[in-house]
Amino acid sequence: MKIEKIEAGFSVSGQIFPQDIPRLAAAGFRTILCHRPDGEGTDQPTFNELEALARQAGIEMAYLPVESGKVSDDDVRAFASTYAGMSKPVMAYCRSGMRAVTLWALSQAPVQGLPAVLSAAKSAGYDLSGITYRLAGGNEVPAHVSHHQVLIVGAGAAGIAVASSLLSRHPGIDIAIIDPAEIHYYQPGWTMVGGGIFRPETTVRTMASVIPAQAKWIKAAVAAFEPEHSRVLFEGCKLIAYDVLVVCPGIKLNWHGVEGLVDTLGENGVTSNYRYDLAPYTWQLVSQMRRGKAVFTQPPMPIKCAGAPQKAMYLSADHWRRAGCLHDISIEFYNSGPVLFGVKEYVPALMEYVKHYGAQLHFGHRLTKVDGKAKRAWFAVTDSEGGQGSLEVEFDMLHVVPPQQAPDFVRASPLVDASGWLDVDQYTLRHRQFANVFGLGDVTNAPNAKTAAAARKQAPVVAENVLAVLSGHEMQAVYDGYGSCPLTVERGKIVLAEFGYGGKLLPSFPRWFINGQRPSRLAWWLKERILPPVYWKAMLKGREWLASPARQDR
């Protein structure tokens, strides 16, 4: 018997036997729920036999048999009523546990939401993708389902860029983009907002103004994917079919992944440049601070723009230096990882600034808890030999970067790898299992930096390969892992890190023009003056400046 925990108070397993009852009692289960009809299997003990043993062990037991593959609405209602009145924790079983999970999911989906129940079941090893439509509240799949040649999930930088790249190559192509957001953000600008350089409103456009006019905008949230049927289920229990699916909904910032963080964000000196509404608070704190301790954190990889956590530190320290109060401020950087930056060629230049600002670096420190009112933060510490510990730190200002993961509706789908990221070939960006599915941007498991610059290079690759699949031709476009991280080490200077797979340096400009391994004023000018209009007027419009894909046979 293998017990799988689904949620607090509810676990499932396959068939149990008399010898399993003491183990269940020792594990603290107070109720056993049987969903397997007597006589279904030749080696199956009867319910009455098990109930007698359970009663002796102090465990309640209930019989709610369901025929395999035929979970009815009446069964679900009976389960919900029975489960609500049971002493917890409950262990439910059938032949494999699938009926038990299905009953739980159908009863809980209206309360917890489709992604949550799919994810919980998947984590326990149960695939409920075959009943997503029913879990979403539907009955029978409608005979007519709307259809598009290309369906793009997500209207962030990656989604808009790939739609525009497709339309620039094939103006008549039928494209629909699903995204519920009203606003589109230029997120690379938020570090500059937090440094007092950009005004926040310059990083915002309405979604309607950036989605290509030739594409249909479906303003809704995706609930689930059905790749085996080439369909996507979205809110309102509606289905859309596609010839090719492009998945690029971005990344989820897991603010709840740090205990106490959501209760203090935006006050008590706790801020983050990873949110539009908080980046101005970062600048407020920095510009008003004259003495005390400033703490900056970086969570485990992968994260969006891995250089952003330290960019906030450099720009803050530079302001305090210019204001003449740097010597009165203690700066500490707590990084979950083992190194300052993942590409070693850029580390020497960054370390010069770390020393210049007097910042203290702490590696192997993961933020776990924040108490804003008490001005305390706690870290889980892993030393160089793998030893574990904890550390409590005081602060006056705390800049937090939250742990990050793929969106819940992606993690709960059949499209992800074992780590929960969209599973694509790192060169073609096509899904490894479903040949008519592609992915790009922060959601994929390709081992590149998760930056807007990466999406700018990925979009033409995906566009060309999507058109190849639609026309029945071989894919030729490949992505080399390019990513760019303009590390703002001081106001007016940037270390322009550009690299691809394996940390290979991929500079866009001659070394005599911009040496990416040294701080540069030209790189700052590029970041401040050139990249924002390139984003709005080129990348999102299908104009691929320095972004043409490589083509080769693999």
TrEMBL record:
GO molecular function, one term: FAD binding
NCBIfam families found in the cross-reference section: TIGR01244 family sulfur transferase
Domain Beta-lactamase hydrolase-like protein phosphatase-like: 8-109
Record-level GO BP terms: sulfide oxidation, using sulfide:quinone oxidoreductase
Gene3D superfamilies: FAD/NAD(P)-binding domain, Protein tyrosine phosphatase superfamily
Keyword tRNA-binding: no
Obligatory cofactor(s): FAD
Name of the protein this chain belongs to: Beta-lactamase hydrolase-like protein phosphatase-like domain-containing protein
Keywords for the protein's UniProt record, in alphabetical order: FAD, Flavoprotein, Oxidoreductase, Quinone, Transit peptide
Extent of the signal sequence: none
Entry-linked InterPro entries: BLH_phosphatase-like, FAD/NAD-bd_sf, Prot-tyrosine_phosphatase-like, Sulphide_quinone_reductase
